[in-house]
Amino acid sequence: MKVTVIGSGYVGLVTATCLAEYGNDVLCLDVDVSKIELLNQGGVPIYEPGLEEMIKRNRAASRLRFTSNIAESVAHGTIQFIAVGTPPNEDGSADLQYVVAAANHIGRHMNTYKVIVNKSTVPVGTGDKVRAVIAAQLTLRGLNASFAVVANPEFLKEGAAIDDFMRPDRIVMGCEDETASDLLHALYAPFVRNHDRILLMDIRSAEMTKYAANAMLATRISLMNELANLAEILGADIELVRKGIGADPRIGYHFLYAGVGYGGSCFPKDVQALQRTANENGIQLRVLAAVEHANLAQKSVIIHKIKQRFAGNLAGMHFALWGLAFKPNTDDMRDAPSRVLIEYLLAQGATIAAYDPVAMIEAQRVMPHATGLRYGEGPQAVLKQADALVVMTEWKAFRSPDFAEMKALLSQAIIFDGRNLYEPQYLAKQGFEYYPIGREQIYPALIARALMTEPSEQALNLA
Ligand SMILES: NC(=O)c1ccc[n+]([C@@H]2O[C@H](COP(=O)([O-])OP(=O)(O)OC[C@H]3O[C@@H](n4cnc5c(N)ncnc54)[C@H](O)[C@@H]3O)[C@@H](O)[C@H]2O)c1
After folding, report:
1. Quick one: which of 215, 314, 356, 385 has the fewest CB in 10 Å?
2. 298, 313, 339 — which closes off a domain?
3. Catalytic residue list
């Protein structure tokens, strides 16, 4: 099938590439000319595991092409996916200017039947808006071409986007046009081969499903974070509590980790936008307001621990930072909790040496003026002479480090762990002060006790 994908960001690029992988003829449009130039030279503007090779393969087979020519892109696909950004406005509502611009472009150039499929996360009612924009352009042109609008929200997760797209747990399709529905069922058939996972519904329900899913997930995270803060005070261990509640099938183990708050390009803006929609309709989503509030507070939990440990005086101190991206396997820095920490430490007169396996270039781009922040070549390289290590992203490479080497490199053996990667008692035995989230905090007195209970070498030899 001939498919056009409008927008070559995280969602657009993955959508275009995965559709090409199954043999479709895909043209991907972006108004950002430098992005298209990079893609046409074989570069990839984002990090997503497996994406680069897949793009390469499909470009070589001429199934995937990139353009900034709008007329060409509209002429190409019967199916036109819209995958442009919907960032938040000042008031938290979704900014639809890019979606509307894409719709205007389609209306201005289309001459034959088109199916416009909205993959961007958009408020309920946007389908009607897109339809009206295109119809207005057609009227201006005196053209009576028919078209259908479909809501097909995307549920892929950055870091696992290709797998999510190739093996979706569901494809939500808000479609009220039979021809469009047949075309999309045919397009998605290879992705749902072993059993049908296409959920056909009306456009408004499809639009709302995306926000409802993100609201539910953000709620889980904020609740776990608040429970973790309480567990820490009560002397309970949130990791054990997590296992205890996750065993209940009504709760499940997924997405139950306590940490430094959610970030990224979706949850913060979608939680806000859904509240905004509710307010505009005279309803308050009280739970979501609390979820957002709790998340903002959680982003400061590590900061409070650091302040407390160093008696508030951080000027002249030097910190090592592991992890910049808002989660592992992506270079996305949008609303990353690391940014809140970096801003705070630098404002206090501290310096930072940071390492992230893939997000350092993006970090430099989004924080170009962060004097006092430098980047290292590897996890060990940034530890030298740091007063403490702070872990902000749970990359695999950070999970089993050489603690003896770390201790030798750090000027103080102190770890603030925003992702609960290590076992508190084990770190105590290694002689580390350790401050995780919602678990036992290992401070100097506890290290002394842990080291005393360790059998001495002499005693072992005697035995
Ligand atoms: N990133 C995710 O994990 C994710 C997951 C599910 C849904 N979504 C939603 O998908 C949408 C896109 O998100 P993203 O992360 O891919 O955004 P992004 O910012 O990475 O990419 C958007 C791209 O669209 C381009 N663009 C803007 N206006 C355009 C136009 N008129 N014509 C052509 N290109 C245009 C931009 O230049 C940019 O390259 C958002 O609504 C987002 O909420 C994102």
Report:
1. 385
2. 298
3. 266
